[in-house]
Each structure stands twice: as C-alpha cells, then as structure tokens.
Amino acid sequence: xGYHYMVIPLCISMSxxxxxxxxxADTVAAELEKRILEGSLKPGDRLAAERNLAQDLGVxxxxxxxxxxxxxxxxFLSTRHGGGTFVTDRMEAHFADPWADLVKGHPVLHQDLLExxxxxxxxxxxxxxxxxxxxDIRRLDAVYAKLxxxxxxxxxxxxxxxxxxxxxxxxxxxxxxxxGHLSASLMRVIHGHIxxxxxxxxxxxxxxxQLQSQHRAIWLAVREHRxxxxxxxxxxxxxFVRQSMDNNAxxxxxxxxxxxxxxxxxx
Length: 267
Description:
The protein has helices at residues 14-17, 24-38, 50-57, 61-74, 90-105, 109-131, 134-151, 156-173, 177-189, 191-202, 205-223, 227-261; strands spanning 77-80, 84-87. The protein is mostly helical. It folds into 2 domains: 22-88, Winged helix-like DNA-binding domain superfamily/Winged helix DNA-binding domain (Arc Repressor Mutant, subunit A), CATH 1.10.10; 91-259, Four Helix Bundle (Hemerythrin (Met), subunit A). The protein is globular and about 70 Å long. Mean pLDDT is 84; it is low at 1-15.
C-alpha cells in the first residue's frame, strides 16, 4: 500500500518570518504618551531634565530625544529653545475650544452642559469610590483639605481653582482615561459659569455652606468606597448648581429690569 503526500504551498513571505523589531524610541514615546493619557503628566507640566528623565526611564539620551521628537510631531509635547519640554493641552483644547465659543453664543446649551456634567461627574464619583487606590485617596484628602481651607476665606479665585481641582481629582480616581480628559475639557468650557455661580453663592452664606456640605458628602463617599452614595451625592451637587445658576439668571434679569424702569443706562 503506497503513501500519498500533498504538497501545500507556503504563502508566507520572508518579511513575515522576520521578528518585529520594536525601536527603543518608540517604547519610550509610548511610555510618555501613557503618562499624558493617565494624567500623571498634565498640560503645562515641564518634563524633567533630559539626563534625569533618561535615567528614570532607563534609556540613553539619544533614544529619549528621538521619543520626545515623536511626541512633538504628534502635538503632545512642545519644546522651547533653552526652556525645556512641556506637555501641551492638545487633549483638552481640541474638544474645549470650539464648545466654549458655541456656549457663549447659544445660552440654550448651558442646560445641556449641566446635564452632561451631571452624567459625567456622578459616574466618575461612583467609579472612583470603587476603584480609588490609597494614593488616590491621599490626593483626594489633600485637595479636599485645600478646598475646605479656601472656602472659609474671601479669595474667590482660589475657591474656583480648588473647586475645579477637587472634581478633577475624583475624575482621575475613576481610572478611566476618557472620563479624566473629558472632565478636564468640560471644566475649561464651563470655567466662566463656575466663576459666576460661585460668586453668586459666595454672597449667600447659607447657600455657600450647603455647597461645601455637598463637597464633603462626595469626598466622604469616595474615600469610604461607598459607590452608590458617591454617585448620588454628585448628582445632588450638580442639581444644586443648576438651581443656583437659574436663580442667578433670574436675579440678574430682575436687576437689569429695575435699572431699565428707573431710566438708568444698562450695558
């Protein structure tokens, strides 16, 4: 009994048989890109000195330079002659800038933004309560302590900065890259609204105390890993903000109406 053999042609090119070579500069670029995505390198941050960063990453300085150039060409980094290398705001600006212009011209978008913010921040708080590490909780404790400190004073600009930082730390503690960057972008879009609303509430001590109580409720629920409570606390907070902005708009319209009736000039 004879044996029959079938010859199967191999349609594999020599290039497919060669192992893929990953350039060290590409690996370094990917590591720096990851740090930008996760938020450990933020817009405006200056990279460490070349020698120190190369040592931290365990690579040569030429490989680091090549990696940095790759990220400069992508728009994630920018270099200043004699001034170092900085993280750009590309991740936030491309989303925020056109929306900021639209919001100014279309007040109807204000409610849509608040609705989106409520969805985003409640989900972020809930995920943060589930996922926050010890390091996240330490950051959250520090930013809340700062918020508590400045809310007791009269520096409104410091209150705005601390408020934005508090919500951003929670977004980053959710450990979802999109939530982190969308939150940062959204804060850029609504920064003016936050400023106006805090100014309105700051003039009303009882409402100001309510606002800080809401921040405390979110902080405690996240740090104690109570996810449902954290999500609800964030929803309640944004609903309070919405009502405050409505009240602010009504108060301003009454003020302008009274001035018009009195025959006073209104810009």
